[in-house]
Amino acid sequence: MRRASVRLRAALGATLVVALALVAAGFLVVATLRGGLADTARLAAENAARGTAAQLAGLSDTRAGRADGLDADEPVQVVAADGRVLGASDPLRGHGPIAGFARPDPPGEEAEHQDSESDSESDSDAGPEPESARGGAAEELDADSESRTLSFPVDDDGEVTYDKEDITGTQEFDVAAVQGRTGDGTPVVVYSGASLGAQQEAVSTVTRAMLSGLPVLLLVVAGVTWLVTRRALRPVEGIRREMSAITASTDLARRVPEPDARDEVARLARTTNETLAALETSVERRRRFVADASHELRSPIASLRTQLEVAAAHPELLDLDEAVADTVRLQTLAADLLLLARLDAGERPAEGRVALDALVREQVAQRGADRHPVRVAETPADGEVRGSAGQLSRVLANLLDNAQRHAASEVRVSVRRDGGDLVVEVLDDGPGVPAADRERIFERFVRLDAARSRDEGGAGLGLAIARDVAERHGGTLRAPAPSGGGGRFVLRLPLADS
C-alpha cells in the first residue's frame, strides 16, 4: 500500500491529537459543570429544608402546615417520625411521604411528648416556644441531614404534578432531608427538593455546542496544518527536484537551492551541496587519475611494443636492456596504481607492530647502488608503531627515491621520538621545494620539473602514495621549510599502545 505524503500524515496526526485533547477536555468540562450545578442544587435544597425546619421549631405539629417554606413551587414536605405528613407544598399536598429516605426513630421521650401533646398545642397557640426548645431543635437540625436524587412526575411546564392527565414525563430533583423538632418536641423530617432540570439543560446545551463546534475546529486544524506543512516542505521539494535533475543529467557541478533560513531544511540543503561538492571532487579526481594513468601506461607499453616489433623483424637490433627497463617501469607503475586503488577503496593496514628505526636502517642497507650516500643519524628512538611493515617500507622507499633524485651530494635520515609520536625526517641538499608547491607535490601524477625525463622523474605517484599510507596509519606526511636549505620531508606516526 502506498504511504501517504508527509503533509497528509502531519495533518491527520495533528487533527487526531487535537480531537483527542478536545474530547478529553469536553468530558472534563461537562463533568465539572454537572458537578458544580449538582452541588448548587443540593445546597439550595438543603438550605430550603433547614429554613423550613427552623420555622417548625416555633410551631406545634398541628400547625406545621403553616410554615412559610411550604408555599414554594418546589416539592417540600414535613413528615413526623410515625409517617404522618404534617405539611407539604402544593406539588405534594395530599400525597404520602417521599420514598427513598429512612425516617428517624422517635426518641425515648416520645411517649412523654405524645402524652403532653394537647398541652403543647395550647401553649403553642398562646405564644412562642421557650428558648430552650428552639435551641434543641437547632442542634438537631445541624446534626442530621441527608440528600438524594429522586424523580417526580412533571407536566409540560416542568412543574411537579400527580394529575394523570397532566403528567408528561419525569424530572429529577435533588431532595435534602433535614431532621428537626416542632415547637412541642415532635421529631420531624423536612424534605425539600431543588429541580435538576436547569442543570441538565445547561449540560445538554454545552454538550451540543461542543459537538457542533468540534468538526469545524478539526477542519480548521487540519487545514492550517496542511498549509503550514506544505509551506515548510516546499524547499524540500525544490531540493528533491534539483537532485532528480542532477541524477538525470549527471552534472555534478549543479547545486540544490539553499533557503534563506537557519532551520533544518536549510541545513539539509547545505549538507546536500557539500556532499555534491565532495562527490564532484571525487569523480573529477578519479577521472583525472584514469586519464593520467592511461597516459603513463601508454608510454612504456608503446616503447615495449616498438622494440618487440623491431626485434621480430630484425632480431639483431633488439635492445634487451631497454626492453627490460620498460617492463620494470610498467610493473612498478602497475603496482603503484594497484596500491592507490586499494587505498581509495578504504583498505585498512594490517594490525602489526613495527620498529620504525629498524625499518629505516633496513631500507638504507638495501640501497647500496644509490647515486648519493645516505647517512642515518645515531639518535636513539625506542618505540613501535602499529600498522603494515610492507606499506611503511614503501613510504620510506618513496621518500628516499625522491631525495636521491633531487640531492646534490648526500641524503640524511633521522628517527626520533616526539611525545606520543615517532618522527622520521628525510633531508637532501638539493634545490628544495618551492613554498607554493609544498602541498601540490603530494597530488597524483604531479611532476614539478616538466622538462625532466620520465625515466628520472617517475610517474609522480611516489609522494601521493606515501601520504595516503601515512594517513591510513593515523599519521601525517609534510614538506616543511628546511632550516638549512634543500628538501625536507617529515613523517609522523603515533606510537603503538603498550
**What's the count of strands?**
12
CATH architecture of the largest domain: 2-Layer Sandwich
What is the top-level CATH class of the largest domain?
Alpha Beta
Largest sheet: 5 strands, antiparallel
Strand order of the largest sheet: 2-1-5-4-3
Total of helices: 11
Rg, alpha carbons: 54 Å
What is the fold-level CATH name, i.e. the topology of the largest domain? Beta-Lactamase
Structural class: alpha+beta
Rounded mean pLDDT score: 79
Estimate the helix proportion, in percent: 40-55%
- Sequence of secondary-structure elements: HEEHHHEEEHHHEHEEHEEHHEE
- Percent of residues in beta strands? 15-25%
Number of domains: 3
- The rough form would be described as rod-shaped
- Would you identify the regions where 5 or more consecutive residues have pLDDT less than 50? 106-143, 450-455
Q: Distance between the terminal alpha carbons, to the nearest Å? A: 58 Å
Describe this structure in words.
- The protein folds into three domains: 20-208, Beta-Lactamase (2-Layer Sandwich), CATH 3.30.450; 264-344, Helix Hairpins, CATH 1.10.287; 352-494, Heat Shock Protein 90.
- Helices cover 50% and strands 16% of the residues.
- It is built from eleven helices and twelve strands.
- The protein has a five-stranded antiparallel β-sheet with strand order 2-1-5-4-3. It has a five-stranded mixed β-sheet with strand order 7-9-10-12-11. Strands 6-8 form a two-stranded antiparallel ribbon.
- Strand 9 (411-418) and strand 10 (421-428) form a beta hairpin.
- It starts with 5 loop residues before the first helix and ends with a strand.
- The model is unreliable at 106-143 and 450-455 (pLDDT under 50).
